[in-house]
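Still learning folds. Look over my entry:

…
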Amino acid sequence: MDKLLAMKMFAATVDAQGFSAAARKLGVATSSVTRLVDALESALGTTLLNRSTRQVSLTEAGARYYARARDIFEALDEADASVADRGEEPVGVLRLCLPVEFGRRVVAPHLGVFLARYPAMELDIDMSDRLDDLLDGRYDLSIRLGDPSPNDELVCRQLGRFQRWLVASPAYLARRHRLDHPEQLLEHACLRFRYGQKARPWRLRQGDQALELAVSGPLRSANADLLREAALADSGIALLADWLVRDDVAAGRLQRLFGDWQISPGAANDSINALYLPNHRGSRRVQAFIGFCEGLLKP
């Protein structure tokens, strides 16, 4: 028995929910699929599938075996891609992790262009604002905003930069005290981004003048778009990335405040970085996506 082939027949049967459907998908006789799955169960000494006249379902042992089989197939695909990926054109699956709103607003609208440019590639994308660890091999590439990677084992390549803007809705500003100087932010409802459990002051600089303001307000969140929506709903002043609110400012839904000041919360960096493991330095897939993002971020 070809055990790898039998595993593929078993997995195909699970995916298709039946021997006949799996056979049609694979282009082989139903009897061939049945025979190999039966031989696999015999070799393992356990039943992997519950059989009925209409469909099949996994036994408890079958569920465990199916999960491990999928891992093996993915590892084989990755091994094949790692060789092909050193050729002239990028080939195979690229596993990405992107910040949620950055991925949705900046990257997602242009993914069709990327996939048309690289038809031999497939993207597998997670979106998370957590600092996911690339060292476990879950991702090939991660895009992060702000401080570069604190891990010396990762390659960090800067793709571009962004600014942080103070914004509020015209309606909020119309009903509150005038804002002639940043120190007056202390008198306003400030919508603050949550950095862990510790509150961070808002820092502003203009020439030699530097301010550190312990602002307060009715809302704090680790989701930047929630703060944006609250600002649009006239709830206060938010400190947000320019790429998140640029369209709102251009349309007049939000107003930018103190544009002649440099604004940054804490010691946060204003860089947009690509992080990947050193063994991906020669990856055509990684370099293709990095180049794509650099093009998106050009001024």
Observations:
- Residues 60-84 form the longest helix (25 residues).
- The mean pLDDT is 87.
- The domain at 3-84 is CATH 1.10.10.10 (Arc Repressor Mutant, subunit A).
